[in-house]
């Protein structure tokens, strides 16, 4: 498994460092400041979107689920980092072979926090709006690919992050079903102030 | 906070970037869903154009002209989320204020009462200020 992981990693990472403008594009798209911000701005837009109040309420449930899933996914990554043995980043394990075109993160490699958070956002909204979920999966996939391309994650780290995102979304979806009266109350209050 | 990334100037640039992008996105959303109360323009075309231009401009500025170096670490997730939330909230507030001033003559006739219980739906007919002041004039009840 580790061997296959490393093989796939080097297939992808070997593409880096040859064409500087491609590296620049992937670095920009995969950093914390571009697509995660785009996703949050998109969620803000989704909050206000809908043909009618029912449609908009469904979208707002999706946004709540999405943000909560991202938060829980981050928490699960934090727990994994605390209990699992530290796995070296690819650029630490193979300093002479890896094309590192990003800043060197200092936290453990497995699981990928970026993948967990971005897939958490996408999966959360998918629960209430499949189409939007698929659309938001695109930036999550780009971020995940970019992290491997730039030499900061193994593919297995990404899969680990993805699995945690799905787990987090499952937890949040069940919690939202159980806590529906509470969420309805919050939305009703926000509607009073024209914010939902 | 020393060095460029993580410095206050970086935080300020990041907040401006998110703030302006959200303002642009809100104008696109206002045009798309005909939320006349929060639009800056009467014409939907202008709303779309303003939103698209302002978003493209602010992304270009932030990634091309601020001296941002992505080979250096940016800030950690918690402060990033904090500043992101602050910028989004501020952008919504400014959108509500500007649109309430620009659309202050928006007709608040009897039709607008229909939308009173519908939250954001009311912003199709009234500005945010008109909506919220009516709510408080009624002593917080509808």
Descriptors for this entry?
heterodimer, A: 196 residues, mainly alpha, Vanadium-containing Chloroperoxidase, domain 2, 0% strand, elongated, B: 142 residues
Structural class of chain A: mainly alpha
Give the number of DSSP strands of chain A.
0
- Mean pLDDT of chain B equals 88
Looking at the structure, the CATH topology of chain A is Vanadium-containing Chloroperoxidase, domain 2
What is the helix tally of chain A?
9
Main beta sheet of chain B, described?
none
Number of strands of chain B: 0
Shape of chain A: elongated
What letter string, H or E per element, gives the SSE order of chain A? HHHHHHHHH
Tell me the helix content of chain B. 55-70%
From the spread of the alpha carbons, the general shape of chain B counts as elongated
Instruction: Kindly report the greatest chain-chain contact and the residue count on each side.
Output: A-B, 34 and 38 residues
The end-to-end span of chain B amounts to 48 Å
Low-confidence stretches of chain A: none
Mean pLDDT of chain A: 96
Radius of gyration over C-alpha positions of chain A, nearest whole angstrom: 18 Å
Portion in beta strands of chain A: under 5%
CATH class of chain A: Mainly Alpha
- In quaternary terms, these chains amount to heterodimer
CATH architecture of chain A: Orthogonal Bundle
Topology:
The complex is a heterodimer of chains A (196) and B (142).
Chain A: H1 2-13, H2 20-30, H3 35-48, H4 53-83, H5 90-93, H6 113-126, H7 130-149, H8 155-178, H9 180-192
Helix pairs in contact in A: 2-7, 3-4, 4-6, 4-8, 6-7, 6-8
Chain B: H1 8-32, H2 44-64, H3 77-102, H4 111-114, H5 128-137
Helix pairs in contact in B: 1-2, 1-3
